[in-house]
Amino acid sequence: MSKSGFMAPEPPVLPSPWATEARVALMEDARTFARDVVLPIADRLDPQKGEMPRELIDQMASKGWFGLTIPAEHGGMGLGVFEYCLVSEELSRAWLSVGSILARGQGLGTQTIDDERRRALLARSARGEWIGSISLSEPTAGSDLAGVQTRAVRDGDHWVLTGTKRWAGFAQGADFIEVLARVRDPNDGEPRSAGLEPFLVVKERGSFPEGITAKVIDKIGYHGFLTFELALDAVRVPENDRLTGLYGDGGSDADSGGFASVQRGLNIARVHTAARAVGVARAAVEDAQAYLQEREQFGRAIGDFQALRFALADMAAEVAQARAFWRQAAHLLDQGEPAESETAMVKLLATEMAVKVTNQAMQLHGGNGYTTERRVERYWRDARLTTIFEGTSEIQRRIISDRMLPRP
């Protein structure tokens, strides 16, 4: 595979409200790691639909990146959504799945009812020793999470989970699986989401617990870890493993309900997805930039032709625009703003941009872009998914428009 692309770290434009010395250092460390460690692994394993090695995950854990947003008192780095997305963009530039695995830490799976256990799990999460899988969707409930039908029935001091879940990424390699299940049907006048709660299914890495049968979903991209459809048949979960939230900093979300916590978590996930999409699109720009100088036709580098130069310029401008937007949305979340419209907007614009830019990069590569000899086909495949997961582009448009106009 050609090793074109991956330019030197870009100097931040100063003065900039985001470019603190600590953030620039974090960005450059992540960028170097992505280039020197992640990219060679991706080049080797992605064509085989291979899984990222545990050694790579351990290296990321040693840098503290699974605890970026976990408070320092629990062993984390005590940083915000901004820094979390900053690292994710850099890692996604090398391999989307590596930028995504960070979301399996950050205090995920720690919001247990028992405070002492919550603190212990937060410390494990910060060390990268408590990495999970999120199982929200079902064959008939994706964008409409309120339609989840998996049932959780109380049996003494346990809950019994039965149903089918889909799109459970990294479920086999995880330490736990978070399962969104219905504990009761909504009462008259309640929203359809009433009665949904997340549960923690603890498991051994590399296997599934009793009662879960897993089937691998064969994806066209987003390789690096496997994604599963899970059949749950009377899976027993202790009451202490009923969760009060999907994303958190060690505080309780019990009063707001499980489904509300899922929605808040999705706002963070949308900005995270935007940052990952920017990373993938940036990869396409950098590879195209190198290729336009490498490839010769008609006795000159094709980068000398104005049409191709202008195409590259448009691509670079669109990436920069999306990056500025995700940084603004992340800042709002770190300031405690709900930013529902902004997170939906940036998810929509950044992911649609990534599809457009990677497609254009493929075109600039000509026939070579339609081979597995160049990385650009990987970027193209991975970018396409970003418009779908964490809420499709159509769902983002609905969120935005519903906050602008009365709902019909």
Q: Assign the CATH architecture of the largest domain.
A: Up-down Bundle
> Mean of the pLDDT scores?
91
Tell me the span between the first and last alpha carbons: 52 Å
Strands side by side in the biggest sheet: 2-3-7-6
Ranges where pLDDT stays below 50 over 5 or more residues in a row are 246-256
- The whole-angstrom Rg is 21 Å
Question: What can you see in these coordinates?
Answer:
The protein is α+β, with helices and mostly antiparallel strands and 408 residues long. It is 44% helix and 14% strand. The protein has ten helices and nine strands. Strand 2 (151-155) and strand 3 form a beta hairpin. Helix 6 runs antiparallel to helix 7 and helix 6 runs parallel beside helix 8. Mean pLDDT is 91; it is low at 246-256.
